[in-house]
Amino acid sequence: MKIAVIGTGYVGLVTGTCFADSGNDVTCIDIDEKKIENLKQGIIPIYEPGLTELVQRNSAAGRLKFTTDTAAGVQPAEVVYLAVGTPQGKDGSANMSAMWSVVKAIAPYLQESAIVVTKSTVPVGTNAKIFGMLKELTGRECDVASNPEFLKEGAAIEDFMKPDRVVVGVRRPEVSDVLHQLYEPFLRTEKPFISMSPESAEMTKYVANAMLATKISFINEMANLCEKMGGDINDVRRGIGHDSRIGFAFLFPGVGYGGSCFPKDVRALTSMSLDHDCEPTLLRAVDEVNERQKSVFKQPILDHFDGDLKGKNIAVWGLAFKPRTDDIREAPALVLIDWLLEQGASIKVHDPEAMENVEAELGDKVAYCKFRMDAIEGADALVIMTEWKDYHSPDFAEMYQLMKSPVVFDGRNLYEPERMKRRGYKYYSIGRKAV
Ligand SMILES: NC(=O)c1ccc[n+]([C@@H]2O[C@H](COP(=O)([O-])OP(=O)(O)OC[C@H]3O[C@@H](n4cnc5c(N)ncnc54)[C@H](O)[C@@H]3O)[C@@H](O)[C@H]2O)c1
User: Fold this and answer.
1) Which positions does UniProt annotate for substrate binding (predicted)?
2) 98 CA distance to ligand 1 middle (Å)
3) What ranges in 261-376 are assigned the alpha helix state H?
4) Would the pLDDT of 189 be above 90?
């Protein structure tokens, strides 16, 4: 099939590349000229495991092309995917300006039988609005489908190639059939292809993200309570997780969720609820608990240093909002670093992939260390903010020697408190007594 993908970010690039890998002819389009120039040379603008090899292989095979020329990309396409950003607007609702400008830009070049598909996460009703816009702009009723994306950054290729399910929202079964054909190579293990109305598909994406965010905020609130009352959230997790109605997934306590999706999608759904006079009590609480959780270490850090952080050397391991990505959008680490700087601390940071992005934001306010152990040399405390594998099994004896004082604030519960105590550390974690 001939496919155009508009917006070559995390989602668009992965979508286009995976469709090319299953034998389609794909043209990825973006307004960012530098990004497209780099992609033409096989330089990938983001860190996503496995993506570089896949882009290079499919480009070499002539199935994957990159351009800034909307007309050239859209004219031959049977299916046109829209994957531009839908960031949070000032009032919490989704900012749809990129989507609307793309719809206007593609309209003159669409083939009569082309199917336009939204891949971006878009408010319920967007499909109908695009249908109306295209009718006005082209004078005909174009097929517009919704196909929300559920991939996770850091495992995007795997998620796209082996999805738990594919959801499409369509008005005509024929459109569903075309999209089913497109996805068949990825559904060979009998995972479901679920067809529904566009409104239900749009809603499904928000509900999925809101559910996941709710689980995280729930376990974080329970963790904080557990710590105050002398329990251990890890034991509680084990105690509840074996209940098949509950399970273990997404119930890891930590320093809060971040990224480009959960925060903005919870807020966009809140905004949609308000627009329809439905009180978003739970959604608001999920967001509020999460914002608070990003600051969960402030008080323990202050208490540990008797309220004075001036001149203290703090090491931070992990900057990305989660492991296996360089994405720092709404990352909890940035909230903590801002506060530490306000308090007068000196900061050395390490992250396997996200340091360039942080440097673009923070410049020389913090020191960037290529190796994790360089960050902790002379440190009064180490704070762990992202659960990269690199941090799971460090040489604790070497760390002990390198640090000025052996103090660890572990925002991802990577280590066993009793073992840390035996190793001579003062150890703080989430939902467990400090030792
Ligand atoms: N990142 C994720 O993990 C993820 C997962 C599922 C769904 N989504 C959703 O997918 C959508 C895209 O997210 P993303 O993370 O890929 O965003 P992104 O910011 O990484 O990429 C968006 C791309 O669109 C391009 N763009 C903007 N305006 C354009 C225009 N007028 N014409 C052509 N290109 C244009 C930008 O230059 C950029 O390259 C969002 O709605 C997001 O909520 C994201």
Assistant:
1) 150-153, 205, 250-254, 258, 322
2) 9
3) 262-275, 281-293, 298-304, 332-342, 355-362, 372-376
4) no
Q: Answer yes or no: pTM beyond 0.85.
A: yes
Known catalytic membership, residue 261: yes
The architecture CATH gives domain 206-293: Orthogonal Bundle (1.10)
Q: Does the domain spanning 2-196 belong to CATH 3.40.50.170?
A: no
- CA 5, CA 7: separation in Å to the nearest integer? 6
Tokens of 409: 């604030």
> Using a 6 Å cutoff on CB, does residue 261 contact ligand 1?
yes
Query: Is 298-428 a domain of CATH 3.40.50.720?
Result: yes
Q: What is the mean pLDDT of residues 177-201?
A: 96
Side-by-side strand order, sheet with 313-317: 367-368, 346-350, 313-317, 381-384, 407-410, 426-428
Nearest atom of ligand 1 to the alpha carbon of 101: 31
- Select from 5, 8, 11, 205 the residue to mutate for testing ligand 1; criterion: most ligand atoms less than 8 Å from CB: 11
For residue 243, the tally of other CB atoms under 10 A from its CB is 9
